[in-house]
Amino acid sequence: MRIYLIFLKFESIIKTMSNSSRKILSEHSVSITNPRILVLEALLEFGNPITIDELQLKLKDSVAKSTLYRVLNDLKRINILNEFTSPDNSTVVELILEDHPHHHHLFCSDCGEVIDVELSDEFELMLTKEIEKIQKNFNFEIKDHRVEMIGLCTEECANCK
């Protein structure tokens, strides 16, 4: 009886995730395919920036690497996926949904962890003003900006021990 109840709860969680993925795809007028659902579910479940290699491991054999890259490109095209390069030149991806505000990242140079960081509104305002000056001085239109901070995790980090 307990195993059955646990299974029903797990089945409910999977169904909810699948419905979330379907909803995201339909809201962006993208056809709903099994690989897209699997990739979105993995990204939603992880919830943090993840390297493409880590994502591939998480998906195991359910999505071919070439399909994974196609799905990631589809998600970038509809502006719900951010892709950037870590200091060790790994490609990192993260979902950017409505509840995911503009933010920056901390990179641990030891374990490779990527941590989302929101900077103060005052700092973002100063940065925006500097960007405007740079655009004017160089006659250059800046589309996006990133602040990347590189350091080491604390002693409590299980990955760094």
3D structure, described in words:
With 161 residues, the protein is an alpha+beta fold. It folds into 2 domains: 1-99, Winged helix-like DNA-binding domain superfamily/Winged helix DNA-binding domain (Arc Repressor Mutant, subunit A, Orthogonal Bundle), CATH 1.10.10; 101-161, Ferric-uptake regulator, C-terminal dimerisarion domain (Dna Ligase, domain 1, 2-Layer Sandwich). It is 48% helix and 16% strand. It has helices spanning 2-27, 34-46, 52-59, 65-77, 121-138, and strands spanning 50-51, 81-85, 91-95, 104-108, 114-117, 148-151. The strands form 2 sheets. It has a 3-stranded antiparallel β-sheet. The radius of gyration is 19 Å and the shape is globular. 14% of the residues are buried.
